[in-house]
Each structure stands twice: as structure tokens, then as C-alpha cells.
Amino acid sequence: MAVDHTEFPAQARVVLASSGGADSLGALIRLQELHARGDIHHLSVVSVDHQIHPESASWSDLACAQAQHLGVSAHTLRVNVPPQTEHGHRSLEARARAARYQALADWMTTQPPSGVLVTAHHAEDQAETVLLAALRGSGAAGLAAMPVWSRFANGWHWRPFLDMPRAELRAPAEQSGLGFVSDPSNADLRHDRNYLRAEILPRLNVRWPQAVARLDQTAAQAGEDLTLLSALAELDAGGTLDGTDLPTVRLIGLPLARQTNVLRAWIRRRGALMPPRARLQSFVDQLQQSASARMPTLAWGDWRITRYRDRLYWRTGDESTPATPVVWADKRQPVAWTNSRVWRLVPTNSSDPLAIDARWLTRDWLLRARQPQDRIRTQAKRPSRTLKNWFQAQGVPPWSRESAVVIEIDGQLACLATLGVDLAFRPAHGAPGWRVEAVPTAPVVQLPPDDLTG
């Protein structure tokens, strides 16, 4: 196997996600050969123990033992798979997969930047993913299946074996004399992927010996199509797909198919699962109606998109504020209060409308929910306003009003976190200041297309 040095990061630190199975061991042996040749700067192994199967811990132990036998450092990550009600993932396999990638992303962010996560996906895995996508009625994003390279956490996700047949990938493992895991769940034909692997793909190969290669070509072509669709969505959205809101003026003027394409691209960018096709289409139809009539919402899983006035807003998780206030004493450290966010200070300047003067950093700050008597003054030569009136004037969406975080200093409302700062607490012209930012407690992880559960 050769490394494509046109894409491979210099001095790459490669981390193989290993289940301890034959595919993972075959991948490890091949990667270790690349490392020995100097093509890979650093190689290690991480095994995720989902704690679902009684023997899962011993499987991770075996994955680590395989690595250590080959002189490669190894580490185990143990995760708790969330219940069915969380994150929009219905099946156990999907929830385990989401937990696995979240754990891997969290771990990668603790390592030096530009790390490369490797998974041992091979040609049959890619063919199965294409078939699953086709049977689910997926478009280009589903049929594109798994790319060789994609961004992941603070680095990259590399699948170097996608064009390699399973038997070829496993050959070094079977010849090594090392033991490897055989997950009994892979023989359970109730799972769609297992059924395709055991019953359908072998029959396709008998009838069409090049079936796997042709399906992989389909994925490659769909990937090219998806690149064009994503570029079109960026143009149609005016390059605003990285944010948590979208203007509707450009969107509503587009043909319906291009409106849907923009929304799909935005959803992919936010790392969410795709909503049901009929639900997404119904939402697009609602957007054609008067913006003043109501606030149409597309809701699926743990995600929501709501139109308010002339914008679409991305919403996730619990938007409520806790009833019990919290004191923020040490501003050098972020403070956790709301369920889905932590709050931190970042340096800014007086031209920032959300800047707070540095002289207030030595005081204790009280983070609390809004109260009926709260008022704020953000404009000179204007009186203070009730928060209700101020929210209306600023066009703050109703759900953000209810979840607004008030920062109180010396008994006065100083700031509405991420929304506005009272004039009495702003820095003088030209003076430095500090801005309150909200950071998700769990960073958004762009989930790859369906892969194996082992």
C-alpha cells in the first residue's frame, strides 16, 4: 500500500481505531510497515469499549495487545452509549457509533493538532454502504458513502483501504499468528448491514463478479456530484453555511430543489443526521408562506430549524436556563451553568458591542435567568428598556428570550450573554475589553457515513 503524499499531512501522527478484529489487525500490520519505512511519522492505536457486550473489555485488551506486540502504543476509551431518547439516534448500533466517534473526537482534541484517525474500512464496506444508502432512498450524500479523506476533530479521518478487498486486507492478520476478535453480533442477520454482507453481496458477486468495484465507482461518482451540490449550496446561501442562522431572502427566491439543497448542505455542515425527506420537504413548502404568519419549525432527533422573521435559526439541546444562579468568580476559567453550554471570556476591544470593561473582572459575576424587573440600556441618550421591549426591538427570537443568560454585577444587570451589554459596563473608546462567549459542552462531531459497529 502506498501513501498519497499529495494529501498526507507532514509529520503525521496516525491513530488507528481498532476493534481487535481481523480487519483492524490487517490494517495495523500494514500501517506499521509504513511507519517502519518512514512514511508515517508516529503511529498509535485507540480501541473504543462500548461496554455493551460482556466481553467488550477483553476485546479492547486484545486490540491493545496486538499493537504492543508490534511495538505500537495503545489506549482504550470506554464510553457509555446514550439511551434511545437522546441525540436522534434510534438503533443501538447508531447510538454506539455516535458515542464512538464522539469519544474519538474528544480524544483527538487532547493530542497534537493535525492528527490522522484511520479506520479499517475496505471495498466491501464501501459497497455495503452504497447499497444501504440506495435502499434508504438517499441522494448523492448517501450514495457518496465514505470518502478516503475527511476533516475530523482537530485533524483528519483517513480510510486508506477503501479500494482493497476484505480478503486482501485480512491476509496479513491471518498469517501473523496473532489472535483477533470475532464479534458474534456480526452474524446477527437482523441487522441490515450483516444481512447485506452475508446474503446479498455474495449473490451479487456470483452474478456480477465486478459488483463491489462497480458499487465503489458509484460512490466515487456520487462524491463528485456531492462536491458540486455543496458548492452550489454555498453560492445560493451567500457563503453563510458555517453559522447558526441563515437569511431567508436569498433562499426563498430559489427553485424548491435548490432550497432543499441549501438546507441539506447546512445540516451536513452542522454534523446532524439528515431529517426524513417528507418532513424536510414540508418545511420547505412552509417557508413559502408569509414570514409574519407563524414560526415554522423543522424538528427531528435533537435538532430544530426555526424561521423567525427573515432568518432561519439552528437550535439544539436544552435551551432552558437553570433556576439556581451561579457565581463566576475566576474569569480566567470558564463556568458551566446551562445544560448544553459553558461560558468563557475572550479578549476584544471597545468597538465590539458585546465588550465589557476589564475593570469589572475583579468583581464576582452572578449568572442567572431573566427576571420581570430587569432592564437594560444599550444606547446613549436613550432610557433603559424592559427586556421584553429590548428583545422585540433587537429581533431576538422568542426561544432565545426565554433562555437568555443574565450577568449581574454589583446587583445590576450588566450583560445579556451573547446578546447585549449595558452602557454602564462597556469599555471607554479605544480601551480593551472582554466578550462573553458560549461554548457547547459537547463539540459538534461530523458523523461519517454508516460504518461497521465493531
TrEMBL record:
Q: Where in the cell is it found?
A: Cytoplasm
Q: Gene3D superfamilies in the record, alphabetically?
A: 1.20.59.20, HUPs
Asked if the Swiss-Prot or TrEMBL record annotates the protein with the keyword Nucleotide-binding, the reply is: yes
User: Which superkingdom is the protein from?
Assistant: Bacteria
InterPro entries assigned: Lysidine-tRNA-synth_C (IPR012796), Rossmann-like_a/b/a_fold (IPR014729), TilS/TtcA_N (IPR011063), tRNA_Ile_lys_synt (IPR012094), tRNA_Ile_lys_synt_N (IPR012795), tRNA_Ile_lys_synt_subst-bd (IPR015262)
Lysidine-tRNA(Ile) synthetase C-terminal domain segment(s): 365-438
* Alphabetical UniProt keywords: ATP-binding, Cytoplasm, Ligase, Nucleotide-binding, tRNA processing
Q: Which family does it belong to?
A: Belongs to the tRNA(Ile)-lysidine synthase family.
The UniProt comment on domains reads: The N-terminal region contains the highly conserved SGGXDS motif, predicted to be a P-loop motif involved in ATP binding.
Protein name per UniProt = tRNA(Ile)-lysidine synthase
Organism classification: Bacteria, Pseudomonadati, Pseudomonadota, Gammaproteobacteria, Chromatiales
Q: Which gene encodes it?
A: tilS
